Amino acid sequence: MRGVAVALHRTLGLTLAGFLIIIGLTGSVIVFFGELDEWANPGLLKVQPGNDYVDFLALRENLQAQDPKAHVYGVVFPENTDDAVTFFAQGAIDATSGEYLDPGYDEVFADPYTGRRLGHRLWGDFSFDSKDLTTFVYFLHYSLVLPEEFGELVMGIVALVFAADCIVALYLTLPRRQPREAQRGKTFLRRWKRSWQIERGGSPFRIVFDWHRASGLWIWPMLLIFAVSGFAFNMPRTYLAVMNKVTNYVDTHALPVLDRPVLHPAVDWDTALSLGKTYMEKQAHKYDFTIERPSSLIFRRETGIYDYRVQSSRDLAEVPNYGYTSVAIDAMTGKLHTVELPTGLYAANTFTAWIKALHQARVFGLPYRLFCSALGLMLAALTITGVVIWYRRRTARLRRPSSQTNLSPET
Q1: Rg of the chain in Å (alpha carbons)
Q2: pLDDT at 325 over 60
């Protein structure tokens, strides 16, 4: 059994090595994505505060009218008085041919006081322009340089395989079975203690091996959490299907896609916003939570749904510029479709909200963010040391007779 586990850990580790190094290094950077993005792009993301905001929904229409190739489908309301207002865009659909047009960008920024267009960018586009570098690093983290949907699928599978490898790795740290005579006076925890330590005065290979095993054990719970949450982020519909097998789980991002997108919703944007506020207030009264501020309004033509989100007392602390308390509104009837509360309604949603918040370092303040940044570096280092261990053993096997090739330190 142990031999099978060793072979499986080696195979999975080598297969995932390149992915994990990229994930770890980029993850250590994007922990501070918001600050880095604002530092690199003040002309896009920051404005001089004024007196009153313009009508954001009218501004959305104006921005869409400026480019017939763009469908401006969402607005993220400013959190701070000096924040620009952000709009999401996607390709419009040609009314005659039904073809998707390409505006060349998916984010538009405007001054919330004057309505002036500040600029736009394509999330994850690679260029040496400052507006693209930060989002490219973020995109690389969850989609590599692949087309977004395919890249998310690949990285979602990577996350699942990594979760499995974490379990195999934990098994390999457990003490080997020994005859009862050899175990006399040594409890399981006492024998396992060795796996948590680095042997002093050992050979360089012994130190590398001990560090790989011990450091992996110390951060093992977080590695598993990050793997499972990575799966939840990248494959939301599959995650929804899995969770609903055992418990109730709601995710407005994973609603069924319609056969044909809704191009002309019966419910207009102003009505959707009004309905969203009304429905949210009713839910706040029903489920006893406090609405702190509006977050966004998004029309998803693929599902025929308006998604109205707020920051509320049900959100986990320190959510930067985005709330996860939402009501989904049917764009054709105006009826309430789905309610999603991050915590306190369904156990599965609370669990998912926590692992996602831990993954994105949205809780526990700066100390935890620094920890997550260090964790990304440790993941890369764990992967590299794992490759070094494999290479050293492989080299030894090739150089020595089969009877003398056991270079493995005892585990």
Answers
A1: 25
A2: yes
pLDDT band at 409 (very low <50, low <70, confident <90, very high): low
- Residue 44 clears pLDDT 70, i.e. is over it: yes
Neighbours of 144 (CB within 10 A): 20
Domain ranges of the chain: 1-45+125-249+364-411, 48-112, 253-345
How confident is the model over 378-387, as pLDDT tens digits?
A: 999 999 999 9
CA torsion sign, 206 to 207 to 213 to 214? positive
158-196 pLDDT, tens digit per residue, is 999 999 999 999 999 998 876 665 556 677 788 888 889
- For residues 19, 21, 26 and 31, what is the CA-based torsion angle, rounded to 10 degrees? 110
Terminal alpha carbon distance of the chain: 14
- Give pTM, 2 decimals: 0.87
Cβ-contact 142, 27 below 8 angstroms: no
Cα separation, 124 vs 148, whole angstroms: 9
Q: What's the pLDDT tens digit per position in 73-99? A: 999 999 999 999 999 999 999 878 888
Q: CA-CA distance, 250 to 187, in Å (whole number)?
A: 45
Half-sphere exposure of 87 (CA within 13 A, CB side): 27
Report whether 338 contacts 250 (CB < 8 A). Answer: yes
SS (H, E, C) the chain: CHHHHHHHHHHHHHHHHHHHHHHHHHHHHHCCHHHHHHHHCHHHHECCCCCCCCCHHHHHHHHHHHCCCEEEEEEECCCCCCECEEEEEEECECCCCCCECCCCCCEEEECCCCCCEEEEECCCCCCCCHHHHHHHHHHHHHHCCCCHHHHHHHHHHHHHHHHHHHHHHHHHHCCCCCCHHHHCCCCHHHHHHHHHCCCCCCCHHHHHHHHHHHHHHHCHHHHHHHHHHHHHHHCHHHHHHHHHCCCCCCCHHHCCCCCCCCCCCCCCHHHHHHHHHHHHHHHHHHHCCCEEEEEEEEEECCCCEEEEEEEECCCCCCCCCCCCEEEEEECCCCCEEEEECCCCCCHHHHHHHHHHHHHCCCCCHHHHHHHHHHHHHHHHHHHHHHHHHHHHHHHHHHHCCHHHCCCCCCC
What does the block give as tokens for 91? 């390709």
Tell me the residue type at 171: Y
